[in-house]
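Q: Given only this backbone (419 positions), what sequence would you predict?
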């Protein structure tokens, strides 16, 4: 009954908001929505035009180098040479002047010199059908990936995971500078059946996540806007034993400032908020507190750029009685341009994973892991916005659980399209 009442209330609120927004559309001004303007800029800046097709091509070269600790183990580390490479492209197809289909695809081959199991093809795809009107922007979206990666700071191996999701959104102009958005998305995560630390990842982590969002925007200038975002989340696990422990729902309110990704001086997003994460299992502690998803870069002068990041959210755990943990990761960085074709980078982040339940290898101990990550790079520009770089990184974890600390270094080559 409780779930039925909640669902009915949410549906009623969403219906009332949608009706009010549609009623207000005629009152909006004649300028285009900010999402429509950004889509037009992306298509205009794409270098290839073949008939109805507009193409933004790319080449992926990442992690080409030597990894000193492939599985992040404290003893007997596996060392290997690796390379990830493959093509990537975004295709835009204007079906009509106001209706655009876009598809992104990137097959990538991951090569390891000695570790045969890690050699694989990774596939990443996403697509959208977008209707760009004067006072409204509608989008239906889908995403699919099939990749072997290290998906969290908790899991030290690289399991294969399939991700299949879809959703939709509507952005409606309410006035000259204000707009209102509604969105829904759902995604299913399917892990391979593999053991890690005595737990089967498929049984522990296979799940479906669904989110509904209501957002209000104020366009302060062409390239920046303030926003308030309300979010409801629902998390349903596939296997019955995990569903009883881990099924949850959440409510959050966010606020912040967005800068257009096409801007030159300032880019990124400041997004901070408050979340209530409520496991449905009686007796499991809930989380109430700060969350954030922030990444900003500032080009202060021709030769200097600064950046900062702050990530904090609830993540699902594989360990023992812990249904989740709180991951916090602030970071800072800088780039120096001594010559027009040369860039020097340095970044540092200090993170932690805090667990709410005692256990996981230490009797009566609430687990706490800390991370230090240093990285540096020297990039040489080979095209207008593309640069090839030599990168070095050092990663270290400390834990209050014995035997869980370790270190990793990596050095190699990388290709970036943000110079």
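A: Predicted residues:
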């Amino acid at each position: 009954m409780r779930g039925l009442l909640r669902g009915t209330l949410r549906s009623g609120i969403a219906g009332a908001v949608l009706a009010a927004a549609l009623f207000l559309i005629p009152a909006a001004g004649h300028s285009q929505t900010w999402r429509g303007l950004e889509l037009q800029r992306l298509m205009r800046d794409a270098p290839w035009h073949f008939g109805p097709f507009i193409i933004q091509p790319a080449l992926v070269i990442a992690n080409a180098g030597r990894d000193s600790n492939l599985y992040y183990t404290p003893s007997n580390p596996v060392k290997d040479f690796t390379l990830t490479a493959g093509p990537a492209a975004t295709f835009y197809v204007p079906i009509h002047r106001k209706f655009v289909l876009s598809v992104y695809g990137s097959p990538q081959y991951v090569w390891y010199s000695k570790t045969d199991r890690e050699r694989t093809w990774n596939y990443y795809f996403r697509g959208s059908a977008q209707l760009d009107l004067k006072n409204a922007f509608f989008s239906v979206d889908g995403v699919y990936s099939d990749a072997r990666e290290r998906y969290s700071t908790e899991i030290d191996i690289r399991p294969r995971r399939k991700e299949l999701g879809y959703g939709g959104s509507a952005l409606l102009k309410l006035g000259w500078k204000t707009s209102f958005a509604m969105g829904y998305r759902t995604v299913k995560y399917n892990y391979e059946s593999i053991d890690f630390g005595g737990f089967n990842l498929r049984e522990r982590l296979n799940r479906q996540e669904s989110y509904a969002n209501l957002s209000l925007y104020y366009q302060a200038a062409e390239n920046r806007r303030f926003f308030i975002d309300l979010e409801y989340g629902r998390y349903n696990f596939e296997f019955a034993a995990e569903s009883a422990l881990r099924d949850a729902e959440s409510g959050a309110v966010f606020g912040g400032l967005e800068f257009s990704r096409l801007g030159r001086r300032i880019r990124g997003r400041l997004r901070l908020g408050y979340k209530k994460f409520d496991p449905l299992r009686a007796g499991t502690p809930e989380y109430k507190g700060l969350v954030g998803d922030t990444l900003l870069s500032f080009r202060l002068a021709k030769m200097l750029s600064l950046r900062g990041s702050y990530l904090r959210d609830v993540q699902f755990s594989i360990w023992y009685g812990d249904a989740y943990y709180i991951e916090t990761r602030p970071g800072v960085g800088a780039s120096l341009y001594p010559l027009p074709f040369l860039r020097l980078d340095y970044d540092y982040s200090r993170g932690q994973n805090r667990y709410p339940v005692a256990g996981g290898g230490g009797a009566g101990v609430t687990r706490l892991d800390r991370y230090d990550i240093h990285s540096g790079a020297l990039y040489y520009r080979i095209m207008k916005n593309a640069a090839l770089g030599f990168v070095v990184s050092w990663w270290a974890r400390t834990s209050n659980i014995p035997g869980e600390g370790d270190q990793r270094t990596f050095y190699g080559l990388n290709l970036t399209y943000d110079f």
